[in-house]
Structure formats: structure tokens, C-alpha cells
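=== RUN LOG ===
request id: a7f3
mode: sequence -> structure
chains: 1
length: 389
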Amino acid sequence: MIRDTAKQLVCAELGTLYRALSADASTAYGLSPALVIHDELGQVRGPRSELYDALETAAAAQEDPLSLVISTQAPTDADLLSLLIEDAKKAKDKSTKVALYTADVELDPFSEKAIRQANPHFDVLMNKDEVRNQAETARRMPSAESSYRNLVLNQRVNTANPFIAETQWEACAGEVNEDLFRSGTVYAGLDLSARNDLTAKVLVAQDEDGVFHVKPEFFAPTLGIVERSHRDRVPYDVWANTGLITLTPGASVEYRAVAESLVSDCDNYGVAEIAYDRWRMDVLKAELAKLRAELPLVEFGQGFKDMAPALDALESILANGKLRHGGNPVLRMCAMNAIAIKDPAGNRKLDKSKPTGRIDGLVALAMAIGAASRALSESSSIEQGFVSL
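=== RESULT ===
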């Protein structure tokens, strides 16, 4: 029996009621479903959905519940569906299965091979001519490519073009050699935050093969972290609980903790330079003065003049696979949120791809790489000068 007005199907023989729920989570409380079908869960932005949580927890009352997700992929790694897919791919929960049809990023995205890889029903249910027309439209019009990649090729695609390609970043997710920071020369980048944003400190050290190893640390205020997690749609609170973000008391970042961390770095590692921007540096210097600490601070602006050569160096290092960042998810978020903007002369600096996107970690990494590259270049010039004498 079909109940149109109630959006219900009733199977009297089995005693089963099928019901379509609205996106309002309040409609899901008090239910005890044996079967839940989440349609287009990829439309959920951010890592949480009250409706999803309500339905999943409600199903726990059943002896053998079944939950299905049928969806195009979400656009970013921080979205709920992406997190569920990545967890399922690790196969730690044997009761969870994933079947993912997506075109390999290495393929020509406009080729029929890419289309078929993402659409195994291409010969059965799809209008082939229409899909091919969509591919050609996306090829001609870059503004249509992101939607085409997401909706036709089922790829995770951010509508903004990031400074760093996702595949390029993932290729550098190798293990970080912690010993390098104790035995080698270390350069640091420091991006101090506004009142309630992330403060990022990133250390880099180069190994004998010329690979830069990355050691990031992030700071955020304790008060309001749950609200900021919802606002930015990223799990700051979860990252804090797992030690990926250091929380400081109050509603703004406590610079005393940042100062103590920098002093500890200089005591334990061979820190040659700490590149910093002038923003709020007077507050941090006051905290360092209280600790009677004299650190190798070097001013490094975030405008086109200083950032252009730093971005060139970072881009080259990434392209040649000469970076190891260990897959830190906070740093990854910053990398995927960053775009490069140009001045009339073609110089570049980093900017956000969206108002709520945080890029502090990548800015600090670029500053550290910029400081290291500048020092290495100066050292090379001096050596060449001695040789030529």
C-alpha cells in the first residue's frame, strides 16, 4: 500500500513500514529502524550530521540492523561521507563494506574510459550521448569541470583549485624522521592566529637526500571549540582529543603556551631560524621576555615579496617528492584550503579558498621552507665564492 501524503510504503504481509524522512533530525528520534538507507549522504558538509547520528543510534535497538549509503562522493575529505569511506577502506570493522566506483585521477577525465570506470551501468541506464556532451562541455569550460568530476566521475573535488593538488600532497605523506630535528639544522615557520583561529608552528629539517621532513604543531583556544568545529565543518575537537591540536585556556590562543613550545624547540633541536610575520608578534615577544628567552627570530612577511620565492621553493619540493609530512590531518586540511593569488607582476601568496577555511599550517610550512631555502642558497653562494678564489 502506498500512502502518498505520508510518504510511506506499507507491506502488510511482512508487517513492514517504509518511511521517507525529511532532513530534519527531530523526525528520526524515537524510531527503531531495522533498515536505514541514506540517500546522497555526500551532500552533508562537514564531519557530522545530526540526522545520520540519530538514525544510526536508533537502529541499535534491532537484533540485526542494516544501514546502506547510496551517494555520489562528497567534495572534500573533511565531509562525513569521505570519513566513512576512508574508515571502511581500512577494513578495521568487518561488518562494514564499501563499493566505490570512481575514476582514477591519473586518467584523462574526459575520456570514455574514465566515465566507464565511475559508471559500471554506462551501457544499461545512462544516456551515452548526453554524458559525452557533458564531458566535452567540461573540457571546453573549466568552470564546469569540478561539477563534472564530482557528479559524473564520482571524484572528491573542491570547487576551488588548491595551490597543492591532492595527489601531490598524498604522495609526500611518508614517515617523518624525528631524529633529524635533534641532529640536523632546523628551520621554523610561525603563523600567529587572530583571536580564536588556529596558531600554527611548523619545523622542517632536511635529510642527506635533500628531503624536507615536517613537524607541525597547532594551538587553539579551549572555549568555543565545538562551535568552531561546526562553523568550519572540521573536527577541531576530535583532533584536540587525539593530541593533534594543543588547547590553551580561555577564548583566545594563550601565547604563553606558544612561547614555551618555541623555547623547548630551541633547547632540544638545532633551530637556526624561526620565521615570523609581524602580526601580533609583540604579544609573543612579551611572553618570551617573561621566560628570558632569546630565540633566532627572523621577520618573514606574508605578502607577495617574501611569499613568492617561498611558494616557488615549496612547489618545487612537492613536485619532486622531496617532502615528508607524515599525513598530519590538520596540516592536510590547511593545504587543501589554500589557493595562490597573484599580483600584476605574477608574484604569488597564499589565500583561503573559502571564508571558513584555515590555511595557517600551510602558511607556516611555506615560511619554514622559505627560510631554509634562503639559508641554503646563501650557503651555496658563499661556498661557490670560496671555490672561485
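=== NOTES ===
Residues 112-151 form one domain.
The chain is about 40% helix and 20% strand.
=== END ===
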